[in-house]
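Schema walk-through. Below, the input block comes first and the output block second. Nothing else is stored per chain. Lengths vary across the set, and this one has 135 residues.
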Amino acid sequence: MLILSPYGFDVTQPKTRTPSELPWSITIFIRKFLSYLGLSALFISLGLIVGIIGYHWAADLSWLDALVEASMILSGMGPISPLSTTRAKVFASLYALFSGLIFVLAMGIVLSPLVYSLVRQFQVNLKKENYEEGE
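--- output ---
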């Protein structure tokens, strides 16, 4: 059944699935979600490694203190130890900006299968004539 929306696109009714198809689609969704979650964890781990190496080099912190400092910045909590050198302060500010980008990237990766599944559930199809020249 085709429903015309006032926003210029057609919304078709979602396909009804038989009970035997439903567990299969949930299994596929969970598998995809876990793979995207793993990819997100990989990017967060790489960001943490960059922070550990950077704090160890720039602020002359021990490896454990660099881990604590990098993980606190990456999680959004803020710095722990005072930074005394200019090199450490510049690295800390750049790493804070980098951590924000890593967070946005990780959230985008994790949420993308959820958004795709939601859009797929509604099966939104844009009409071709909405993209003709002159409109």
